Amino acid sequence: MNLSGIIAISGKPGLFKVVTQGKNSVIVESLLDKKRFPAYASDRISALEDISIYTYDEDKPLKEIFEEIYKKEGGKECISHKEDQSVLQKYILEIIPNYDKERVYSSDIKKLFQWYNLLHSTGNLKSEATEDVQEEKTTKKASKEEKSSTTKKAAPKAKATTDKNKAAKPAASKKVSAVKTGSSRGK
To answer: Who is most buried in 21, 43, 94, 143, counting CB within 10 A?
Structure first.
């Protein structure tokens, strides 16, 4: 899963993708409605790839949690963030059995499931195995297209080269005769 470039802005619903950087801001695009607007330094921006959940051992990155949900759900959406809090806590215990119940609030759990479903519905949530297969297919397709285009282009280039060589030979013989004529005058 690639969460790079996807951010959350405090006070604004949904998730956003960073499009480009402006002079004093970053231009972001909403994943829901594709509207673009600037996000300034005064906005509290959090990159999803930097967010993690507290556990009793080590903090667990959001990317790993999303991958586990993806595997558990078989690539489909997970439960809604609007479910009862006890249902959400049972679900997160299945994914992260050692999460810190004192430091992870119920609002954090809701946001986790809301973000997962949002990323899934917009097509931004794919397992790395799926991404690798798709990348491999596009690489194979590109190499096949490249081979066929070079094969088609190679034949005309070879023909054009031989035509240039034929045309160049008579011109070269004229120059040689002109040089001979010029050198015979000097003697």
So the answer is: 43
- Find the DSSP H helices in the chain: 62-73, 85-95, 106-121, 128-186
Tell me the two tokens of residue 148: 């066929």
Tokens read off for 32: 């829901």
Residue boundaries of the structural domains of the chain: 6-128
- How is residue 31 annotated by DSSP? T
Stronger pLDDT, 158 or 2, i.e. the higher one: 2
Q: Please state the pTM of the whole predicted model.
A: 0.67
Q: Is 181 helix (H, G, I), strand (E, B) or coil?
A: helix
> Per residue in 61-105, pLDDT tens?
999 999 999 999 988 889 999 999 999 999 999 999 999 999 999
26 strand-pairing partners: 21, 39
CATH class of the domain defined by 6-128? mainly alpha
Residue recorded with tokens 């000097």: 186
> What tens digit of pLDDT does each residue of 78-88 get?
999 999 999 99
Residue the block writes with tokens 């499009």: 19
Q: Which residue reads 């790993």 in tokens?
A: 64
